[in-house]
Amino acid sequence: MQRVAKESVAQGKARRAERSRRAFAHGPLLLARLMFFSAIFALSGILYVWMFLPDATAWIGAVYAVFCAMPLLLFKQGLLLRAIDRKLHGLPTPAYLAASLVLDFVLMGAGYALCGILLKTFDLINDSWGELMLMPVDIFLYAFVWSTATNFVLRVRELLGRHVFSSMLISRYRRPLQEDRIFLFLDLVGSTTYAEAHGDLQTQKYLAALFASISEPVRRNNGAIHDYIGDAAIITWSRAKGVANASCIRCVQDILALLAEDAQKWRNRYGQVPQLRAALHCGHVVTAEIGIDYHKITYFGDTINTTARLEGLCKTLSRPLLISRELAAQIRLPQGVVSEDLGEHLVKGRGQPLGVIALDLFGGTGSGGTAAA
Question: What structural domains does the chain harbor?
């Protein structure tokens, strides 16, 4: 059913407050990451001093490196200039690399100048203000090489998928492994009708924008986008990550909330707000890296097929979001989510009936965005 946009916007503050609360809950992990990377950059600063400035004090290099890196770390973690970060990731790769490089130097330059001001204020260094405020050429070149390499690796990681990149890098799935995973199938409602009205090219732009918009909620909820098939996206978690804090359900909630908040932008650009059907299921799969010239990590097993069939039941049962009873039993539903047991249903390719539960992510308030039956 089409949600009411006005009511959706009215609930925007509550949803943002909930995301802030959850971000705060992840504070210790985020702090640990910042400390870890700060230590690495401090060591790089010491290494730079030893290599190029043997007469300088090593700890000065460490302090400068941390101050230069901290704005970048906050930016990469989504804590600084998040709107700019979202726009960067939507750019073509050459433009992304160029824009990222410029932004990196703006942030590093700001950190460098702040560090110099503080050190000068406390009489820890005696350089002139001009030397303190402007990054020297040798440091600029050092940072240029580091930033270019880092942004290239991050872009490749993003193109392949964060989970895929790390798994391929260590050849985790060269030998097939059995895993216990959760799968989310997201399907765009009415894509065929949209294509008939607007043409294939416009439809592809519409799909690309939709798939781009779901990436941040997926990342925020510790999921991984496995594949795009036509007008559908497949998202996955290990069972432990997906169950923890109801991340797999909150992911759908965040996607719908984001679409609702940007409803007017969708109408202005594409003529309508995306409506989605979704299905969640869990089970054992075999995960393997396949291919020679083209490598891919793929999943084999009945769990994938069952999730796809469950998503098909959304239309039959006129429910926008279905979850298997097996998975729902393991999850503590977020506050405000209402469940409805729809009994057991036979699905194609499965011998046993599947227990099915419908979820209303916003408790029937009409504040949840654009899921459609």
Answer: 20-160 (no CATH), 165-360 (3.30.70.1230)
